Predict the 3D structure of the following.
Amino acid sequence: MKTLFTLGVSAVILSGCASILGDSQNPVAITSEPAGASFEVRDSAGRMIHSGTTPGTVTLKTGAGYFKGADYSVLVKKDGFNPQTTTLTHSISGWYWGNILFGGLIGLFAVDPATGAMYKLPEATNVALVPLALSTPVTTSAGPSAISALQ
């Protein structure tokens, strides 16, 4: 019984609160208006991480290195509409601050920052696509006979 208690206390002290209660990956729902658009998710280095069709859900890593959160750009395209790009920006997970309350210094300074569990991404993003404008302006030409007819 004493060994079990010691193992339980050690697990709490030696691990990060966000690693236990959160995750180092988050699902992100990607939607568009209108639906049925194609999308590409790229990391901060420009590498394509995922592609699909809206609506869709992708699971993305929240960390990009020690004490570095991951950000992503999402390009959404559909025929007849201007392509739109949006950014998924990381933020600090509320679970990360649990390390302070529960004395998990290793979690605060090592485990959660190394695994990326200290960060979270938005749960969803919605992109409103704008229809393409007419590519050629409508012009009328009035010759001399049309002008004289107007007079």
Remarks:
- Confidence is low (pLDDT under 50) at residues 4-21, 139-143, 145-150.
- Residues 2-14 form the longest helix (13 residues).
- The radius of gyration is 26 Å.
